[in-house]
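Record filed below.
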Amino acid sequence: MHHHAKLNLLICSSFWLATAICSGNAFGQGTTVPNAVSQAKNQIAYLTPSPSLQYSREAADAAYQAMNYESALEQYKTISQSAGANVDDIYWVGESYFHLRRFDEAAKSFETVIERNPRNEKVRVRVVQTYMSANQPQIAKQKCSEYLVATSDPSVKQQLQYMSKFCDNNIRFRTEKRSLPVGQHGLER
């Protein structure tokens, strides 16, 4: 929080407290000044956004941008478990896991984002990419099929269709490779 914002908050809080004490209506008639101050502090704490949460997000973002994914992951996990967390915080947990090649955990994070915000269709692409990176084309293909039915965004649909074809080719290649006799790789000289 910038210095001016803190000063404005202090001035507004002081004005609100003085108004409440003078009017006698905010805390009831006969409320003493110490009780009014105590009650006002509770209200002020409730009404003001948490500067530490914003600072934590900025620190996590800086770690991520510096490619310090382990540090970013720990910070994003802490943020995502706090009272002021949102789905974007969970998304960045997934991205951090992804860059650490912890694909199962990344996929779970991205799927949590979809559960909490089904309208965020672009994350569906990231789920499929994660399973593809984990060398799990069958699961990636299954997710493509599932998401294609539920997606309305044309660019997301197109990406999912391309990835579905890629998964089909990958699965077909694996199947053909397994069916070759030992010592053959399907290449002719």
Remarks:
- The CA atoms of residues 56 and 75 lie 7 Å apart.
